[in-house]
Design a protein that fits this description.
mainly alpha, 2 helices
Length: 61
């Protein structure tokens, strides 16, 4: 069960990274255009990566 939770968190992180990529013209996605997004979005992704990786590693114990 812990492995599934960890992999799910890593998938969420990948989806968030993909959703935040700029378009072909270099414009930011609409939800990242307000000022607070540049402060909140990267730590949110890092939290999902860190917790997902920790969960996967500790599931093998």
């Amino acid at each position: 069960m812990e492995l599934a939770i960890g992999l799910g968190m890593l998938v969420i992180a990948i989806v968030l990274i993909y959703a935040g990529l700029p378009d072909k013209q270099g414009g930011s996605p609409r939800f990242l255009r307000f000022h607070a997004a540049s402060v909140l979005y990267p730590p949110l992704i890092l939290v999902f990566i860190a917790l997902g990786t920790a969960q996967v590693v500790f599931s093998f114990d």
